[in-house]
Write a structure and sequence with these properties.
mainly alpha, Herpes Virus-1, three-stranded antiparallel beta sheet, 54% helix
Length: 185
């Protein structure tokens, strides 16, 4: 989404969104509100989503906010969000956090791949397509580490692992793109 759903409000201030930001858990907040949540907690740890309690490791500002960057109040909030992303967005997260973040990153990546107006860097696009093609070739080929003909349903385990590794790799690539786009250096 370019911005938060219509007729929705910030779950922190319960008002209309001001500088909307989407967290890696897919929830939307006012940029200033989520920064206040973080300010009232530990400055050394990312804040937790007020709705689902998941750790927020990346905040992505809405497109409208980025277009209004010259406004001093919006610029101040976006700088705070960028600082937050620099501090917590580049961290190596555990496998559980990566699995929880998968739907968020894959939805955004798919939308970006399908939208001709948005452009991913060519090398990222190529790596995504290469990972998907190589995974499909392995899954569809008769050559397997664990052959289905001998072990039956257990033989599909290696196909599932390859698919999971591919999806995690693609999500990690896109996470790095978002990180550098919205606060990385």
């Amino acid at each position: 989404m370019e911005g938060p759903p219509e007729n929705d409000c910030c779950s922190v201030c319960h008002g209309p969104f001001q500088v909307p930001c989407q967290a890696n858990c897919s929830h939307w907040f006012c940029g200033n509100c989520i920064m206040l949540v973080w300010d009232h907690g530990s400055a050394l740890q990312p804040c937790k989503c007020p709705l689902c309690r998941r750790e927020i490791t990346l905040l992505v500002p809405g497109e409208a906010s980025l277009r209004q960057r010259q406004d001093p109040s919006i610029s101040t909030i976006l700088r705070k969000v960028e600082t937050y992303n620099r501090r917590f967005g580049g961290r190596d997260n555990g496998l559980i956090q990566r699995m929880q973040d998968l739907p968020f990153f894959l939805r955004r990546l798919l939308r970006e791949l399908m939208d001709p107006q948005r452009s991913l860097p060519l090398f990222i696009r190529a790596r995504v397509y290469l990972a998907m093609i190589l995974s499909a070739i392995y899954i569809l080929s008769p050559v397997d580490f664990i052959p289905e003909a001998i072990l039956g349903i257990i033989g599909y385990l290696d196909d599932l692992i390859i698919l999971l590794v591919c999806v995690l790799h693609v999500a990690a690539l896109y996470r790095s793109v978002l990180y550098f786009r919205h606060g990385g250096s």
